[in-house]
Specification:
Number of domains: 1
Structural class: alpha+beta
Order of helices and strands: HHEEEEHHHHHE
Number of strands: 5
Number of helices: 7
Oligomer: single chain
Radius of gyration: 16 Å
Strand order of the largest sheet: 1-2-5
């Protein structure tokens, strides 16, 4: 990275990023692929450790990214508008950080140069998540995570 030039995520708003730039902002943590449960009475959203059946838990990447919307109709496609409205996006999410005018963390692959640092920093769901496959929906509450928000 040329020290005289700002990296693209500091230079432009989310709406002005190319598709490749947008995709490269994903840090590969897998947190957005964890299932959420909404409390019908309070509206509170609870994160579970159950991951979408398409998430490769070892790499924390979608195993069929190109076809995810067709295979998983409830998969939320993140865009600049959703970045600003989804309360459950992690505080560490690069889309959220850039949308708020903040910089990326040291462990983000665009900063560190390695896709492994997100895992080394303990930000990803590697080692925490398990697939939703085979788990009955009425048992999801057993997998609620408490205090998984962490910033580094």
């Amino acid at each position: 990275m040329d020290p005289t030039n700002k990296p693209f995520w500091r230079d432009r708003p989310l709406e002005d990023l190319s598709q490749d730039e947008w995709e490269s902002l994903c840090d590969g943590c897998g947190r957005c692929c964890l299932n959420k449960i909404e409390d019908e009475d309070t509206g509170d959203i609870h994160l579970t450790r159950l991951a979408c059946g398409l998430l490769n838990i070892g790499t924390c990447r979608c195993s069929d990214y190109a076809n995810r919307q067709a295979k998983m109709p409830d998969c939320v496609q993140i865009d600049p508008e959703k970045v600003r409205t989804l309360s459950w996006l992690p505080k560490t999410c690069a889309y959220r950080l850039v949308g708020e005018g903040r910089d990326l963390y040291w462990w983000h692959p665009l900063v560190s140069g390695s896709k492994e640092t997100v895992h080394q920093a303990g930000i990803s769901v590697r080692g925490l998540a398990r697939s939703e496959n085979g788990v009955k929906i009425d048992a999801y509450w057993r997998y609620i995570i408490k205090d998984f928000e962490r910033e580094d």
